[in-house]
Amino acid sequence: MHSSFTCAGTLPLHCRDLNYNELLEFPGAIRTLGRLQELGFHNNNIKAIPENAFVGNPLLQTIHFYDNPIQFVGQSAFQYLPKLHTLSLNGATDIREFPDLKGTTSLEVLTLTRAGIYLLPRGMCQQLPSLRVLDLSHNQIEDLPSFHRCQRLEELGLQHNRIHEIRADTFVQLMALRSIDLSWNYIQFIHPEAFVTLHSLTKLDLTDNRLVTLPLDGLGGLTHLKLQGNPALSQPFTKESFPKMRVLEVPYAYQCCAYGSCSSFFKMSNQWEAEDMSPEEEDPHKRTMELFPGHADNHYDLDADDLQLDLEESKLHPTIQCTPSPGPFKPCDHLFESWIIRLGVWVIVLVSVLCNGLVILAVFASPSYLSPVKFIIGSIAGANMLTGIYCSTLALVDALTYGQFAKYGARWETGAGCRVTGFLSVFASEAAIFLLTLAAVQCSISVSCVRGYGKSPSLGKVKAAAFCCLLLSSVAAVLPLFSIGEYGASPLCLPYPIPDGKPATLGFTVALVMTNMLCFLTITGTYIRLYCNLLKGEFSAVWDCAMVKHVAWLIFTNCLLYCPVAFLTFSSTLNLFLITPEVIKSVLLVVLPLPACLNPLLYLLFNPHFRDDLRLLRQKGQDKGSYPQSCEVDDMEKSSYDSTQALVSFSDIDHIFETPDSLGVHPILDSYSFPPMTLVPCQQRVGTSGKERGFSEHCPCLNDSEVLIASESRDPAGSSLRIAFFPSPPTPPYTSHL
Fold it and tell me: Which of 450, 437, 457 lies closest to 376, judged by CA?
């Protein structure tokens, strides 16, 4: 920010303050003021500075043009002002060309900001041999000339331009240059010898450029260095590279690992603008209190010799304020800083990959009937396996970079591997939630359809709905790749907000969590209603009790384990991180993927379908996938008890066996085209009286004879269907899982 100009304390004949006068034109009367030394025109509407504007004012030392829409400057406007010391043309100016400053050999401070300048004259420094401060910020400069003739130049501001490279001769032999600001440009290349001759350089700002490497030759005297906003610059820096460094700002926290975690030493004051105070100017007592605050309240003085030694040591080893600071989400040595987390992640990897693979094998490779709900459970297992693969990737990165993660942390965050890993994580978690929602909706629609129409939705429709769920999950996982959210905010590759992280991921994460909570509310409400009706026995004839209970357990565990993630998201929305970063990291690494290993365990341990499917799978392997064409009666009965899936809906069986004498071939069977299948009877005895019609009120069962459709065989005319009847063996009461 420029300082305001006033004529306070100056003789009226030597100063003119024409600020805030709404001037539309340059006042020509200025030429008649021969003794004028200071002149201020800022905050007016002057659009042009004419030729010979200051003729007749050879004593002018300071000219300020702040915030004027200047579009034209005459070539001779500022010529031959031998005593001109300060010239400021900053603000809303658009002169486009560098003004001719011939004869202004005493000019020391030149400010030309927001002037639209796109080219600097090669002989600029020949005209301005006394120049000490040059501010050319907020222009359109693309190419820099050599400043080697500006031998007295101390400060150079070139921020907010379009500079692409720094050549070897750009700053050559500028022995007095102390500060260079090249921030907010497009610099991609800096010559390795660009800073070699800058022996007085202490401050260098290269914020927000496109640097890949930074040449370190000639930068040993730097005390302030800014490199933030260069995502491709991931090279490590050592203490030996900058022995005098006090303030260092780098793109990645891993580059601060060589200087230790500096968060406790970082001050929010502007250390860049603070002037360096020489040791002779410092108050020894104040310096002592800053270095040793613990002694401020003591009632005795430090020993003089000890104090001198401590001061000398502090000068030899100054504290470096390096930002951003390393932390739990930017570790220096290990990605998993705790062995408990490391072991927990490996357990999740092994259990999720093995158990979900077993569930997928049992569901899709078993010869038993694949019901819609069972298909969804197998699809959820596939999504959970992807979560296990995500965790295994992080575990491998932790193992391969063990003890030296800082060397590879920046490249891992910005690389394609982290983006692919994050995509897998979001896709897997969202697919599992959407498929669980589909299971709830399918169950609700199935019950309504069975009660109203006597049949449930086909498996093909459920597969189409599952494909839509996967498509939505893919869209959610792709968005962070297009800057809606971010996968590289941390080495965990998760688009979740973290302490001291970028706020870019917050909106995406909140939307994601709100969508997931809506899904959980939907499936919870649906299953509460279905489960209550199941307990009443209303759907026992058309519903798979085991699958309903299993999905209910999935809902409970997934909702419970998702609560900490939702809590963290909303806490970050309010900027209230109520728990430590270490705990947040543990939640994201262990609690978030935990459903991926609990879901298959619930299926393997508590769902009887798995044991039946596994038994059938073993039988299929033993028989090499084929069964005899003719079977004994005992084998047929055994298979009827082993199978757990009904292939003919009980609503259709009710119509087939509606009369007591329906033990023969019913005419309605002619209208059905049955594939080769096995009809598994409901093995719950309801009575033995002759008045019963073969099915109970709640569970339609055969009481005297169990029906087993062994195979479909047609005569040459293709019109007959064989049905074999076998008596029921004496078994205890058993409820079928349909």
Answer: 437
* 547: helix, strand or coil: helix
Cβ neighbours of residue 91 under 8 Å, at least 6 residues apart?
A: 42, 65, 66, 67, 68, 113, 114
Residue 722 — very low, low, confident or very high, per pLDDT cuts 50/70/90? Answer: very low
Omega before 231 within 30 of 0, i.e. cis: no
End-to-end CA distance of the chain: 77
**Residue 76 neighbours by CB under 8 Å, 6+ apart:** 51, 52, 100
Q: Give the tokens for residue 718.
A: 């293709």
Q: Is the pLDDT of residue 302 over 50?
A: no
Q: What is the pLDDT of residues 453-463, one digit of tens each?
A: 666 778 888 89
pLDDT of 144 reads 94
Alpha carbon distance 141, 298 (integer Å)? 58
- Cα 692 to its chain centre, rounded Å, is 65
Q: Which residue has the tokens 């006068």?
A: 21
Mean pLDDT of 687-713: 35
Q: Which of 326-335, 368-377, 511-520, 680-689 has the lowest mean pLDDT?
A: 680-689
In Å, what is the CA distance from 387 to each residue of 352, 391, 497, 529? 8, 6, 19, 30
Residue type (1 letter), 726? F
pLDDT score recorded for residue 314: 46
Instruction: Give the 3-state secondary structure of residue 180.
Output: strand
Cα(368)–Cα(359) distance, rounded to whole angstroms?
14
Phi and psi torsions of 441, nearest 5°: -65, -40
pLDDT digits (tens, 9 = 90+) for 404-459: 999 999 999 989 999 999 999 999 999 999 998 898 888 777 777 766 666 677 88
Given CA atoms 531, 537, 539, 544 in this order, what sign does their dihedral have? positive
Q: What is the pTM of this model?
A: 0.69
Reading the block at residue 353, the tokens are: 């990959």
DSSP E strands in 253-368: the ranges are: 321-323
DSSP 452: H
Of residues 500, 493, 498, the one with CA closest to residue 593: 493
108 phi, psi to nearest 5 deg: -110, -30
Dist CA 323 CA 226 (whole Å): 10
Q: In 3-state terms, what secondary structure has residue 379?
A: helix
Q: Which residue has the tokens 């120049």?
A: 131
3-state secondary structure 119-137: CCCCCHHHHCCCCCEEECC
Ordered alpha helix ranges (H), 537-632:
545-573, 581-586, 595-606, 608-622
Contacts of 582 (CB under 8 A, 6+ apart): 328, 337, 338
In percent, how much of the chain has pLDDT > 70? 68
Dig out the tokens for 217 from the structure. 């030759």
Task: Name the pLDDT band for 346 (thresholds 50, 70, 90).
Answer: very high
Q: What is the Cα–Cα distance from 290 to 288, expressed in whole angstroms? A: 5
Summarize pLDDT for 391-410 with one digit per residue, the tens.
999 999 999 999 999 999 99
Confidence of residue 633 (pLDDT cuts 50, 70, 90): very low
β-bridge partners, 350: none
| Side chain identity at residue 533, one-letter code | N
321 vs 605 pLDDT, higher one:
321
Structural domains for the chain: 1-141 (3.80.10.10), 339-612 (1.20.1070.10), 631-738 (no CATH)
Category of 537 on φ-ψ map: left (φ > 0), alpha (ψ -120 to 50) or beta: left
**Contact indicator for 253, 324 with CB cutoff of 8 Å:** yes
- The span from the CA of 301 to the CA of 292, in Å, is 12
